């Protein structure tokens, strides 16, 4: 079973991400949990120990960038950053954190398919960042 935590302050974005994951990962047993801000995301990351964590960058209480730093430091989960923030400096900062993928919103079937191919191979940190 693959456990995914989606951390995004937009309920709409949470639902889109979850629905795309379920659609693309048909045949895989997948459990999806949600958090609506960075602090809740950190708490659920520590308690649930998901295989993968999808993190939006622009969130209240604890920024997505800070959450990425903490998750990468504590380890154990493949990090996927999903954001509408496409500034070069932001991308470079996240790339330096050795995340699995940096995905520009909006997510779609093709982006999710490429991302899930990487996830299924269980390549959490091995081949460089996937940029979509």
UniProtKB/TrEMBL annotation:
Repeat as UniProt keyword: no
Any single Pfam family the record assigns to this protein: Response_reg
Cited PROSITE patterns: RESPONSE_REGULATORY (PS50110)
Keyword entries, A-Z: Hydrolase, Phosphoprotein
InterPro entries tied to this protein: Bact_response_regulator, CheY-like_superfamily, Sig_transdc_resp-reg_receiver
Coiled-coil annotated spans: none
Listed GO biological process terms: phosphorelay signal transduction system
Modified residues (4-aspartylphosphate): 56
Single GO MF descriptor: hydrolase activity
Signal peptide location: none
The Response regulatory domain, residue ranges: 3-120
Role according to the record: May play the central regulatory role in sporulation. It may be an element of the effector pathway responsible for the activation of sporulation genes in response to nutritional stress. Spo0A may act in concert with spo0H (a sigma factor) to control the expression of some genes that are critical to the sporulation process.
Protein name: Stage 0 sporulation protein A homolog
Organism: Caproicibacter fermentans
Gene label: cheB_1
